[in-house]
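Page 47, continued from p. 46.
Same chain as before, 360 aa.
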Amino acid sequence: MSIETQAGFWLRNVNDYREEGGKGNPLAAGFRELSALLRRLFADYSSFETSAAESVPTKIGINADDLENYHNLMETVDCLYQMAAVGLLRQEGNVSCLEVSKAALKKEFKTSVVFPFAMLEKYGFSFRYRKEGKEVAAYKFCGAFCLFYGNDPLLIPAMKTFADSLPDAAIKDGYYLPRRDLFAVADFTCALGDETAKQTDISPLRPCILRTVGGKRELWLTLVERLGEGLKLSAKVSVNPYVFPNWTVKFCRQKKTVLTFIIRADELGVKLPLPYETAKLVIQRRRELPRLFSESIGRFGCVGCGKCAGQANIEVFEGVSLCRLATTNFMSEDAKSIAGGIETQADVAAVCEIVKESLA
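Result:
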């Protein structure tokens, strides 16, 4: 297999630095080089595919070798971020470098540095190791080291400035990405501009989301307009960075999630949990609705959520097993959800119409 899909997601989401009002930031060229570096790294995903593990599925749905290779890729980016975060900006003659305490790095980056360091050297970085003020031959002997970059003199100070400016919050605090992954996508607007990184402040029409949805762009534009402006639902946007990275966009009425979209490269998926009465309506109309609905109806039925004994809440409605319970948790949602890929404007129209009826 391959991690091409995972790397492709991150590649589409790397941002460019844009100066506000022609301010002329002296580090602008360094910020642009950071974006270019990240793109080169994600585009070169095959260099990270070095795993000797078997290509067999794991419990989380990814092959064992792909999982290890994905870790190779993202741990290399994480290692670079952690060095920028804990390192001190220094001058060695006329050259900028990061002086990094080995102990400080090990506290934040708990994986071996052997692979990430080797990969970073491939992309233009170099290391100089020291112990008690004297140079030593390798990382294992050092107490600290200096990180240099030979391709652009402003990359190191720009990277340090950017890392220090990232919002100090995690996904659980309502931010769409943790700091290390904001670094991975070079989100300069959240770090250096006037845009926040909070999920409720991120536009579902962000340029990087539109780049990710790719060929489904027009479908997404229509959905956002009809659900947001038309039905007055608010969007809550986050990124799932793990295993199969994706944008997750929830459309909510007040605090209740009405439906969720999963966006990967050129993929637009939906999960629309249906209230009991709306589910019956969808079953009645199934012959006039798009295939997305008929395929979803075929999966209706008991999901073993533990809310009743002996499937007591399951009825057969027009030949379909239908749960009468409210969709109050993740498992019971699956008992009667419209779930699958949005492929056509007919899918869009049907989803929006069913949402409208479920909210009436």
